[in-house]
């Protein structure tokens, strides 16, 4: 009997290593290719198999509390590449001045990257700095090319927006309501819509009245209007909503969470747009169509 157990143990020891050798392994990274396509120098973390390229924002003078920040104090854009069993993944953080956020975001989305967060890291910074997190999966060549386009887009200088006074607006609510297919609340020159979603917190259902809602407020005129608001989305809906809003010329202001522990997880996106009311309403309708919504109340 002892010989039988010894033989069985030996067979397991000889089989297990062979099995592990047959498992797929992460692909290697061509660091020279990544540097060439991103236009940025990088370093390899051999312990984790990650190649990270960085772009210090030496081109901007950012001050917080009167002190000028060095790029090493959190003003360096970066992208980290890691080989996987099915190709390559990338994660990154972009340091952007406010006017650069949406042009850079469009370049990222148009080139296959995902935008996963947008927020600030400082109080009192002059000029205002925003941080945009990106990610993606695919071939190292495609991802590096996309990151390179994003890095180059950080040099763009967008035009300023026109001034609009909501109190002096002549907006026709019916035209916007027709596009959105919903009835709005028009008061003091502002046309407001609310669309609800539901989630659960602490085992209880929460909806529009508790803050789990998408809202939009229009003001101005039919030819020159402004819309601002907040989208409430499940995580799987975020990229489609971002693409729809950016395609319609609406700027993204922030992407973050309002709650913790909710199921399903809800992401909130704040936005701002200017232009003809019909075009803004159509962009909003396209984003609404990208997620399951219902009009609240």
Strand and helix layout:
Layout: H1 2-21, H2 31-38, E1 42-45, E2 50-56, E3 63-64, E4 67-68, E5 76-84, E6 87-97, H3 101-110, E7 114-119, E8 125-126, E9 129-138, H4 140-153, H5 173-180, E10 185-187, E11 190-196, E12 199-201, E13 204-206, E14 213-220, E15 225-234, H6 238-247, E16 251-256, E17 266-275, H7 277-289, E18 294-295
Antiparallel strand pairs: 1-2, 2-5, 3-4, 3-8, 5-6, 6-9, 7-9, 10-11, 11-14, 11-18, 12-13, 14-15, 15-17, 16-17
Helix pairs in contact: 2-4, 3-4, 3-6, 5-7, 6-7
Describe, in plain words, how this protein is organized in 3D.
It is a single chain. With 297 residues, this protein is of the alpha+beta class. The protein has seven helices and 18 strands. It has helices spanning 2-21, 31-38, 101-110, 140-153, 173-180, 238-247, 277-289; strands at residues 42-45, 50-56, 63-64, 67-68, 76-84, 87-97, 114-119, 125-126, 129-138, 185-187, 190-196, 199-201, 204-206, 213-220, 225-234, 251-256, 266-275, 294-295. Strands 10, 11, 14, 15, 16, 17 and 18 form a seven-stranded antiparallel beta sheet that branches. It starts with a helix and ends with a strand. Residues 4-10, 12-21 and 293-297 have low confidence and may be disordered.
């Amino acid at each position: 009997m002892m010989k039988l157990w010894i033989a069985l143990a030996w067979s397991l020891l000889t089989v297990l290593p062979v099995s592990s050798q047959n498992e797929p392994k992460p692909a290697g990274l061509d660091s020279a290719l990544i540097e060439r396509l991103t236009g940025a120098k990088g370093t390899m973390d051999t312990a984790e198999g990650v190649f990270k390229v960085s772009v210090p924002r030496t081109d901007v003078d950012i001050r917080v509390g009167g002190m000028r920040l060095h790029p090493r104090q959190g003003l360096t854009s970066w992208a980290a590449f890691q080989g996987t069993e099915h190709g390559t993944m990338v994660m990154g953080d972009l340091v952007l001045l406010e006017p650069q956020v949406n042009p850079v975001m469009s370049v990222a989305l148009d080139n296959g990257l995902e935008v996963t967060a947008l927020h600030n890291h400082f109080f009192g910074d002059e000029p205002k700095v925003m941080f945009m997190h990106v990610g993606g999966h695919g071939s190292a060549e495609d991802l590096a090319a996309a990151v390179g386009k994003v890095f180059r887009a950080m040099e763009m200088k967008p035009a300023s927006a026109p001034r609009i006074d909501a109190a002096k607006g002549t907006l026709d609510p019916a035209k916007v309501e027709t596009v959105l297919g919903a009835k709005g609340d028009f008061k003091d020159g502002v046309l407001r819509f609310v669309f609800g979603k539901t989630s659960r917190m602490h085992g209880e259902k929460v909806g529009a009245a508790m803050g789990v809602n998408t809202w939009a407020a229009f003001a101005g005129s039919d030819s020159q209007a402004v819309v601002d608001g907040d989208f409430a989305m499940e995580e799987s809906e975020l990229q489609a909503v971002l693409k729809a809003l950016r395609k319609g010329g609406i700027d993204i202001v922030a992407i973050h969470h309002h709650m913790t522990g909710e199921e399903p997880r809800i992401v909130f996106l704040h936005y701002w747009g200017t232009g003809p009311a019909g075009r803004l309403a159509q962009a909003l309708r396209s984003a609404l169509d990208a997620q399951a919504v219902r009009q609240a109340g």
